[in-house]
UniProtKB/TrEMBL annotation:
Signal sequence region: none
Species this protein is from: Roseovarius mucosus DSM 17069
Hydrolase as UniProt keyword: no
InterPro entries per the UniProt record, alphabetical: Anthrone_oxy (IPR013901)
Keywords: Membrane, Transmembrane, Transmembrane helix
Top-level taxonomic group: Bacteria
Pfam families: Anthrone_oxy (PF08592)
Segments crossing the lipid bilayer: 6-27, 54-76, 88-109, 142-161
Protein name: Putative integral membrane protein
Keyword Heme found: no
Length: 162
């Protein structure tokens, strides 16, 4: 029989991934839409402030902390868990690492850094903002889906442990 500690850790990781997905969903669903509807200067300034504040947030700890946690759990699953549950944990860790963290680091973060260096009222910034808001949101949709799928994979693996 699987021990309660395994169920708690794997299930807790699923919950963490689902929470990350929820934050991404909020941005995709209404935050970015609201920022795009505001005047460009207001939307740009708000996004610059959000991007600066995220660095000291619990969200960032969860977002990045789930990478080593899910990686270690996937390795544990390969070495210690038999059957399909192991495959679900490996899949969940891979989906999270690629679809959330890699997309964030290679897509969203460089865009955020570029926007942060721009003057809010400059014409070039307003032009970039239109591109930024569309592309950033598309990438965020991908991160939302990936973190939700990773959470679902961890839930499936956890259910199979019971």
């Amino acid at each position: 029989m699987t021990n309660l500690l395994e169920l708690t850790i794997f299930g807790g990781t699923a919950v963490g991934m689902a929470l990350v997905s929820g934050v991404f969903l909020a941005f995709s669903d209404f935050v970015m839409r609201s920022l795009r509807r505001a005047s460009p200067t207001v939307g740009i300034e708000a996004m610059q402030l959000i991007n600066r504040e995220v660095y000291g947030s619990a969200f960032l700890v969860a977002l990045l902390g789930l990478v080593p946690v899910s990686g270690v759990l996937a390795l544990y699953a390969v070495l210690r868990i038999e059957g399909l549950a192991s495959d679900w944990f490996v899949a969940g860790a891979a989906i999270y690492g690629i679809g959330v963290v890699l997309v964030t680091m290679l897509g969203n973060v460089p865009m955020n850094r570029r926007l942060d260096l721009m003057a809010t009222e400059a014409v070039e910034t307003r032009d970039y903002w239109q591109h930024y808001a569309r592309r950033w949101t598309r990438l965020n949709h991908l991160r939302t889906l990936a973190s939700a799928l990773a959470a679902a994979a961890f839930v499936a693996g956890t259910v199979l442990l019971v």
